[in-house]
Amino acid sequence: MPMTASINLTQAARQALLLMDLTSLNADDTDATIESLCKQAKTPFGHPAAVCIYPQFIVTARRALIAHKLSGEVKIASVTNFPDGGDDIMAAARATREAVASGADEVDVVFPYRTLMAGDEETCLELVEMCHAACGGQALLKIIIESGELKESALIKRASEIAIEGGADFIKTSTGKVEVNATLEAAEIMLKAIKDSGKDVGFKAAGGVKTVEEAAEYLALATEIMGAQWVTPKHFRFGASSLLADVMATLTGNASVAEQGGY
Question: Which of these is catalytic: 108, 142, 169, 246?
């Protein structure tokens, strides 16, 4: 590998680490799983922006981050209306409010994408607005539009626009639970929607970003559209579970140690 490429990958790895929402959203998650996730967040090269977990593990994560002296440094993100993206507005808002009350700093809410596909934009907007209100100014609202299910460019753009209009602090590609998750094509549409809105809204690529090389492509795209100064944890995140291993392998030069979390 040419030296310039190696340097660029190292820089991308360092940047990706700081932009990561280190994620565990599995049906078999336990307190021990989440405690291990929070331990992985403490690295010699800095820490992810957040851990992203189911609501029932918010308190566990809070305690684990305190134990690792990461409280206040690593945010706690949780998920609601997840992963199905139903159109029950009050249920989504209630779950969001409960997540915030439990201590979530950020809530990733699945947009009712099937409802949009059926042509009902009003319900979609109201759900985002109600979840925004449920955050009460205490937590960031990240709206997952499920771009891989929307498929069509026009629908991805419209979902982004509705989410932004409804008060989303971030728009996010995917749940990671469908066949097609984050893609560069969807990311470009979403980033351009943010730019066109003129609003202070961030972007999160989630699901399928597993290597530093892949992360570097998203970083380059965001830099091209929004500018290098925009690409910070305030505006850009990767939702990832396996990306950390490749980041650490790149930064330590030791893939086996990185994969085991022994860095």
Answer: 108
